[in-house]
Amino acid sequence: MSTLQQAISCVSDYDPDALPVAKANEVIRSFIDPVSGVEKLPVRAALGRVLAKDIVSPIDVPSHDNSAMDGYAVRSADLPRAEAITFTVVIQEAVAADGERITIPPGQEPGQNRRLAGEDLQKGKPALRSGTLLRPAELGLIASLGIGEVSVRRKLKVAFFSTGDELVSVGKKLKPGEVYDSNRYTLWGMLTRLGCEVIDLGVVRDDPKKLEAAFRRAAAEADAVVTSGGVSVGEADFTKQTMAKLGEVVFWKIAMRPGRPMAFGRIRARGKSAYLFGLPGNPVAVMVTFYHFVRGALLTLMGRRDTDLPLLRAKAETAMRKKPGRTEYQRGILELKNGEWSVRLTGAQGSGILSSMSEANCFVVLAHEQGAVKAGDYLEVMVMDGLV
Ligand code: AMP
Ligand code: MG
Questions:
Q1: What b/e sequence results for 302-313 when a residue is b if at least 16 CB atoms lie within 10 Å of its CB, and e otherwise?
Q2: SS3 for 55?
Q3: Which of 4, 207, 234, 330 has the most CB within a 10 Å radius?
Q4: 206 lines ligand 1 (CB under 6 A)
């Protein structure tokens, strides 16, 4: 297990006050080690889990040569004339049948419509690799090998809570200056769909003792803790002190929008530890920082090999303002127009406007170095469907 300072020292030009998204992710990934617990589950129960060991195929699939189509298997030796159609399958529709006799038209290729033993999976070779997410295709593939149980990584336990004196839980009346705690709902949703076992620690008031108690409980019970609020410049001081008191934590200003402030590290209590992600408070910033830092980190903790999501190219319907020197994740609507993917923004892009996340079906990812976008320019989008 390396220290956070060691992970940071591997990153060139590290500046915690203007950290590019890619460098923050580099530090996070190099500091995180997958959880080690493994359990054996029946195949269906393993849906959505991460394979803990390679599965080596115990058989060839298919186990013997067979026909891919309904038809007639033909050996040249059985034909009246020597035709070069050794071991081939002639499809039923091509054949003229008359009682016990059939007539095969010319033009048949040797070996056509044959499935060879082992053409899907070969005995003794790895069929699935450790770190693979088990989706419906993998469940079927495992079943095709005759295997009924698989070794998967245990579920990740993730604690989360909201911080803020202004927060009110759903079901109570709002007084002036108060807001409903929506982050606990978005976080709960994102963590649950990522496949985590969630521990909801509620709303924690801006009070050092309560905050410390919540962090201690999270460190003792969970693999990771995700919080929202309390890390922005105006109010960070005692949150920072509390976090720093419990372990190794760094406080970043990330060169991105939305979502500049973020805390990351590992806290300890009762001989246990948890990775800490202190996200900003604004509802859109919470979701953006979760998707672009926490998601990949938690998948890595779960033992997943591939965590990157594809970026697609789309045409900008309108101009977009953008300054070089930070990554922006604007909320977009991607649509097929005249045979081409085209994208427009959802409207106001403020970090408190959660309706922009609900309306959007993609993030418009404006890269660190990129400047303003003109209508008709091609840019990169990340489809939200894959993000959970
Ligand atoms: P903070 O980072 O704590 O200063 O919060 C930034 C902004 O996000 C403030 O306007 C907060 O009221 C708002 N905010 C913080 N936490 C939540 C939450 N759990 N739900 C909704 N809004 C929040
Ligand atoms: Mg706050």
A1: bbbeebebeeee
A2: strand
A3: 330
A4: no
Residue 212 Cβ < 6 Å to ligand 1: no
Give the atom of ligand 1 at the shortest distance from the alpha carbon of 280. 2
Is 60 exceeded by the pLDDT of residue 263? yes
Closest ligand to Cα 262:
1
In angstroms, the CA 184 to CA 158 distance is 13
367 Cβ inside 6 Å of ligand 1: no
123-165: pLDDT as tens digits: 999 999 999 999 999 999 999 999 999 999 999 999 999 999 9
Dist. CA 112 → ligand 1 center (Å):
65
Is ligand 1 within 6 A of the CB of residue 342? no
| Model pTM above 0.85 | yes
CB 294 within 8 A of CB 193: no
Angstrom CA distances, 94 to 82, 106, 108, 111, stand at: 20, 10, 10, 16
* Predicted local confidence at residue 87, as pLDDT: 83
166 CA from centroid of ligand 2 (Å): 8
Cβ–ligand 1 contact at 289 (below 6 Å)? no
Mean pLDDT of 192-213: 96
Contacts of 207 (CB under 8 A, 6+ apart): none
Residue 211, class by beta-carbon neighbours within 10 Å (0-12 exposed, 13-18 middle, 19+ buried)? buried
